[in-house]
Structures are given as structure tokens and as C-alpha cells.
Design brief:
By secondary structure, this protein is of the alpha+beta class. It has one domain. The protein has 4 helices and 4 strands. Strands 1-2-4-3 form a 4-stranded mixed beta sheet. A hairpin with a 2-residue loop joins β1 and β2. It starts with 10 loop residues before the first strand and ends in a 7-residue tail after the last helix. Bound molecules: zinc ion. The site of zinc ion has 4 residues, from α2 and α3. Zinc ion binds next to α2 and α3.
Length: 116
């Protein structure tokens, strides 16, 4: 997939935390990072200029970093990076290949009114 169809969200909710999503066009930053998750400031940064597929995987990768911390999945570090690196691309493909399932999973946890 080429660059241009994917629009980054302004923010993403990860558990009880609300992360701002920022595009970074700075050349020196983009040479070092595709994305970054700042847990202290609750900001996810994504490099501009990548193909949509790479941007999507990078955004999911950074969301998983945020989720790792929210879910208290273990110490932050190399193990976390390995898990996030391995899960992001396959999870993205599972979501693509099972859209109806994911829609029904989301529907199952939606908050319903008292009379629903
Ligand atoms: Zn990472």
C-alpha cells in the first residue's frame, strides 16, 4: 500500500489513558525512528513519509507499547520490544482478515445504557 490513504488519528485511547498522536516530519528524528511512545507525556509520535502499511504497523506497534504499560505486562525493555515487534504485524493482519469478528468483539464490550 502506498503512502496517502491512511490518516492518523488525533488521539488514541489505551485503557484509561488518552494518548495524543503526532506526525513528525523532522528529518533527523525520522532517520532514527519510525515511531515512539512517550508514556510519561502520553504522546505517540509517528514519522511522516512512510508507506501506509508501514505507518499502520508503526502506529499499532506504539499502541502496543502503551498497552504493555497499562496492562502491566512486565518490565519495560528488550522483552517488551520483542513482544511488540512480533505482535504488531501479525495482529494487524489478523484484524484485516477477520474484520467482522473484530467488529463483533468491539460490540460485545460497548457500554450500553441501563435500558439496553
Ligand atoms: Zn518498539
Amino acid at each position: 500500500m502506498a503512502e496517502g490513504r491512511l490518516t492518523l488519528p488525533a488521539s488514541v485511547q489505551v485503557g484509561h489513558l488518552h494518548y495524543r498522536v503526532e506526525s513528525v516530519s523532522d528529518e533527523s528524528w525520522r532517520e532514527r525512528f519510525a515511531g515512539q511512545c512517550d508514556r510519561d507525556k502520553q504522546i505517540i509520535k509517528i514519522a511522516t513519509g512512510m508507506a501506509d502499511g508501514t505507518t499502520a504497523e508503526t502506529l499499532l506497534h506504539e499502541i502496543l507499547h502503551a498497552a504493555w504499560a497499562v496492562g502491566k505486562c512486565g518490565p519495560l525493555g528488550k522483552r517488551e520490544e520483542r513482544a511488540v515487534n512480533g505482535l504488531a504485524p501479525i495482529l494487524l493482519m489478523v484484524m484485516r482478515d477477520n474484520r467482522a469478528l473484530f467488529a463483533s468483539l468491539v460490540e460485545a464490550i460497548e457500554t450500553k445504557g441501563a435500558d439496553a
